[in-house]
Design a protein that fits this description.
Length: 112
Amino acid sequence: MLVNTVDQVASSLKVLGDPTRLLMMKVLSEQEYCVCQLVEMFQMSQPAVSQHLKKLKAFDFVTERRQGQWRFYQVNPASEQVELVQKILFHLDTNAPEVQQLLARAQPMNCS
């Protein structure tokens, strides 16, 4: 069992407290997505999506896989905070309207 300081947990909750990042974590817990797919799903600019991913990556919540010029992200199963993340995501129903909207906008991989 991991022992985290109050500051570590509070910082993690602060990062996950942003609705966009929380929804990103939910969809990334379902499968791996390319940045270009996340741009379409969230209807945000690529720099905005990248900034959210940068914060999630800084906390080791997501992993990045490079394939040529493209970056693919998924939830990091080896993160020290994985239990906390999983418990939070468990309370966000995959059938929630916000999640279903995002998944409906998910496009097949076409980043080339």
